[in-house]
What does this fold into?
Amino acid sequence: MNRDALVAALREIVGARGVLTRPSELLAYSADGLPTYRKVPPLAVFPGSREELIRVVRLLAAEHHPFVPRGAGTGLSAGALAEGDAVVIGLNRLTQILSIDPVNRLAVVEPGAVNLTLTRAATPYGLHYAPDPSSQSACTIGGNVAENSGGPHCLKYGVTLNHVVAITAILASGELVTLGNAAGESEGYDLLGAFIGSEGCFGIAVDVTVRLTPNPEAVRTMLADFTSIEAGARATSAIIASGIVPAALEMMDGPTIRAVEASIYAAGYPADADAVLLIELDGLAAGLDADVRLVERLCRDAGARDVRIARDEAERARLWQGRKKAFGAMGRVAPDLVVQDAVIPRTRLPDVLRTIHAIAERWGIQVCNVFHAGDGNLHPNIGFDSRNADEADRVHHAMREIMRACVEAGGTITGEHGVGLDKLEYMPLIFSPDSLDAQCRLRTVFDPERRANPGKVVPVHACREWTMAPAARASRVEVA
Amino acid sequence: MTATTGTATPVRTTADVVERVREAVARATPLRIVGRGGWLDAGHPVRAAHVLALDGLTGIVDYTPGDLTLTARAGTPLAEIARATMAERQWLALDPFGSPHGTLGATVATASAGPLAHAFGTPRDNVLGLEAVTGDARVIRGGGRVVKNVAGFDLTRLLTGSWGTLGVITEVTVRLRALPEVEESWAIATPDDPPTLDALLARLRTASVAPLAAELLNPALAARLALGDRPVLLLRLGANAESVRAQREQVAMLGDARPAPSEVWSALRECEPPGAAVLRCSALPSRLPETWALACRSTHAVPDALLHASVGRGIVRCIIPPGALTLGDAIRALRAFDGTVIAERLPAEHWFPSKSDPVRDRLARDVARAFDPHRVLNPGILELAP
It folds into this structure.
C-alpha cells in the first residue's frame, strides 16, 4: 500500500480530521521536549475510540507498517519520535476515565487520560493517583506506563510499576491481550511487569487499571536551605539513613533557585542559597510531627541555615510550584535546555555532584541541578543555544562525561525518562551484550516484526548476536 | 518423573552455574533448580533428571546501609540477610511462608510473599536487580543497585516469579527499609458471618491505622497460634512511638482487641505441617468476606484445615494437612470459585492447570523458548504446553 492509499485507509477508520499529513501540521509531533532531537513524522493518526485504535493497529499489521505510539510527548528521551516511515499513533483523544472503584481503590482509564485529571477525578473519594511526574498536568497514563514514570512522590509511594494492576494491550500483530489481574492474584510470568516501561515497543495499552492511593491524613512540607550543595547532599543521606521515608525529598541548586525566583513561578526560596531541600512528610497525623522534628534536626546538623515549615496549604502549594515549574523557569535563561536523567546510590550524592560541577567547569557550561535527591535520581540540566555549534558540542561532551560518572558511581543511565533514542549509546555502559540480547529477545516475543517504536531502547548493534556474527548480520535486514 | 539425583559438585559461583547449565544442554538432561531444597517444593511434576541446588552459592556481596540496598547471592538464606540488616536496624520486608532458612533466590524465583505484602508489596516491588543464567548458559543482568531505574526492558520483573524457567537466578539486589521504632501486634476477635465481617473490614479501611500486616485467621489457626479458639484479625503495627500509641487506640475501637506476642508472625509463617496442600483464592478485597466464606465452606470437612486471609489484598490461603481424605473434594469446591485459585503446593496427582488465554499463553511459551531454548530449566513446573 502506498502512502496515499494508507492515508485513505486510515481516514476511512478515524475520519478525515483524524489523520495529519502536512509537515506544518506534523511539526507539533516532531519532538518530545528534548531540543537535541527533532524529526517530523511522515504521518500521524489519532483514533477517537477504542475500536478505532484497534482497527488502526490491525490495518498497520496487515500492511507490516511500523508505528510509534505517542501520549503527550513529554518524555524527554526522543522515545516518541517517528523515524523512517513509521506512523505516529496519537492517543490524545482516548482520554476517558472509564470507572472508579473507591472501595477497592482502583480506576480504569484510557491511555490518553492525563495523569492529573485522574487524580482530580479521584479527589471526591479522598483518593489520588500516586505517581506524579513534573509533567503531570500534561502527561498521559499510557505514556506513564510506557516510561514507567516516577515523580517526586515515588520516593515513598513507588513508580508506575507499583500502581498498575492490569492492562489490556493491543500487540503490534493486532491481537488483544490482558496482562495482570485487577481482581486477584496474577498467575504465570509477570508479563505486565515486562510491558510497563517498554517504551511503546511491546504494544499499546488500550486500557489501564491503576491503584488509587488514599490521601494522607496529614502533610508537612519543609524547606531547608544550605550554603553548599554538599551540605544539602549530606542532609539527604542522613535523612534516608535515619529510616524516615519522606513522601518527597527534592533538591534544587543555586542556579536553579535563582532561575525560579526570577520567574513568574517565584516560590520564596532564599535567592542566596546554594541548595535547598524541599521535604514532604505525610501519613497518619499522630507521630508525624516527631518525624518533622527529627528531619529538621538532621538538616541543621548537616549545616542548614534555616528550616521552614509551610504553615498552610497556600504556602505548601507555592513551595511545590517552584519545584514543579523549575524546568519552565530555566527556559527563560537559555534558548535550549537539555534535561538529563540518571540515578546513583544515595550515599554517593555529595561526590557525584562535585564531579558534575567539575565537568561543567571544564567544558565551560552552566549546569542547573534540580532532582529527586531522596531516590538519588539526578536531573542535571544544561541551558545552551543550539545555534552555537561549538557550545552544542561542548554540551554533548559534558553530558557524556556526566553519564559515565554516574555509571562509575554504581548508578544507571535513566531513572524515569526512558532510553528512547537519547540514551541508546549509553546502554552498553550498563548492560553486557548478552543482557542486551536478552532484551532484544523479549521484544521479539511481543513484536516479532519489530514494528512498534522501531529503533528505540536497545542498540541492536551492541547485542551479542550482532557483534559476534557479522555474516549473519549481513544476511538479514534489521529493523529494531 | 521427579528429580532424584543429587548434585555431584556443589555450586559456589555463577561460573559453576553456567557450567552446569552447559552440561545439561550438551547431555539433554534437564535440571530441577532448588534453593535449599527443603522449602517451597511445590509438588508440581518437574521432568528433570538432575538437581541444581544453589545452597552453596551464598553470601552478601554488597551492603551499604546508607543506601538501603543489599546484594546477595541467590542461595543466601533470608535468615542471614535478616541478621546482617538487623545490626543496622534495617530489614528486607519480605516474609514468605515457610522456614526463614529459605533462600533469597527461591523467594524471588517463586515471587513468594507473606503478610508484610500488605504494606510493602511482593518481591516484584522489592527487587531492584538480578543476575541469572539463561537456558543457553548466558549470564544476564536486569536492573541495578539503585532504587529507581528504567534503563532497558525489564528482565528483573520478567525473571521474578518465573519459577526458574527463564534463568537460574544467581544474585539479587533488594531494597531495604528501616525497622520501625516500635512494633506491636493485636488480635481482634472477629465475627464469622459475612455481613458483620464486611462491616469490620470497612471500619478498618477508614480507621486511622496503617498496619504493616492484617491477617484474618480461622479458629483452628488461631488455636495453633495460642490466640484462642475463635476467628481473629491479627494486626501488626509499626511506626514511631507516638504513632503506634494513637493507632493502638484506634484498634481498641474496632472490637475486642488483645495484645499478641511478636513471635506470632514467625509462627504463622511456619504453621504449615510438612506435606500439606496449600491453595490460594483471591478476588477484589471488597469481596473478601465472600471469598473467606467460600474457603471455610470448601474445607469444612477437612479436620484441622488452617485458613488465613490477607484482608487488604483479598487473598485467602488454605492449608490442608497431609493425608486428608477429603482433599479432592476441597479442591473441587475451591475451584468452583469465580475468582482466581492458585495452587501453591499440591500432591502431583491433584495438580490442575491454571486459567488459559490463547494470546497470553503464546507469549509465555515464546518467552520460555527465547530464554530456555533447549528446555533444560525446571521443565513442566509452569505447565506451559510445548
In short: The first strand of chain A starts at residue 19 and ends at 20. Chain A touches chain B through 91 residues (CB under 8 Å).
